[in-house]
Amino acid sequence: MLGAFAGALGFLAGSAALGGTVANQCLPTPSQTEGPYYPPSSQIADQVDKDNDLTLVKGKSDRAGGQVIYIRGQVRDAQCRPIEGALVEIWQASANGRYNHPRERSNPEPLDPNFQYWGNAVTDKDGRYLFKTIIPGQYPAGPQWIRPAHIHFKARRQGFSPLTTQMYFSGDRYLEGDHIFKEIPQAEQASVVIKLEEPGPEFERDARACRFDLTLRSAQ
Fold first, then answer.
1. What is the C-alpha to C-alpha distance for residues 199 and 68, in angstroms, rounded to an integer?
2. Pick the CATH number of 3-10+24-215 from 3.20.20.480, 2.40.50.100, 3.40.50.720, 2.60.130.10
3. Among 29, 39, 108, 139, which has the minimal tally of Cβ within 10 Å of its Cβ?
4. CB 5, CB 176: distance < 8 Å
5. What is the bridge-based pairing of β-strands 87-91 and 193-194?
6. SS3 label, residue 191
């Protein structure tokens, strides 16, 4: 699944990690709600394209609408050791704030037929993963509550407790008022907020890139 972007993962070797790292100890990534829009197992089974590029659906020539981003990161344990063979899944809204889910009935925005909505990757020997996707749109979640742009993550590997969390974007005007984000202890909030950067030469010039590391707890 990483094959299409294998060369782009080399940046991880010497770059500084996001999130909490203290004296060779990596703080666990905060767990957050899965929310209502994780795709049903039947929908995943029927999905034609299940790779780590959510911007292009197999059999279609047009790409998804929205700003293209590359999410790169490492899955590791509490001692900052890489975890090989971890399954990382992401799911999200399209650029107009619409999920592809049976429960998404009240949202008047149309589905993007060229967006994959859900994808997965398996970490390599250095615990690295990579996704190509777009910045999701914000959307109303309740009275006077607009959810900031966010991407849902689920990571699991035998011997570790499964992790479900969300990744947010620095500078989003709805972030500080988000009820779900505010449930994270303040000292841990920075570990799930990323900054978009200029892409390296391995990516298209108008894309953006970020890093989002995930730290799993050992299973008890």
1. 10
2. 2.60.130.10
3. 108
4. no
5. unpaired
6. helix
Tokens of 144: 């006077």
- Give me the active site residues, please: 99, 139, 147, 150, 152
**What is the rounded CA–CA span in Å between residue 90 and residue 167?**
10
What is the tens place of the pLDDT at every residue in 59-112?
999 999 999 999 999 999 999 999 999 999 999 999 999 999 999 988 999 999
Q: What angle do CA 203, 204, 206 make, to 5 degrees?
A: 125
Mapped onto helix, strand or coil, the DSSP state of residue 168 is strand
Task: Kindly state the DSSP code that residue 131 receives in the 8-state scheme.
Answer: E
Cβ atoms within 10 Å of 158's Cβ, excluding its own: 7
Listing DSSP states for 55-102 in one string gives: TS-TT--SPPSS-EEEEEEEEE-TTS-B-TT-EEEEE---TTS---ST
pTM: 0.91
Task: Tell me if 203 sits within 8 A of 8, measured CB to CB.
Answer: yes
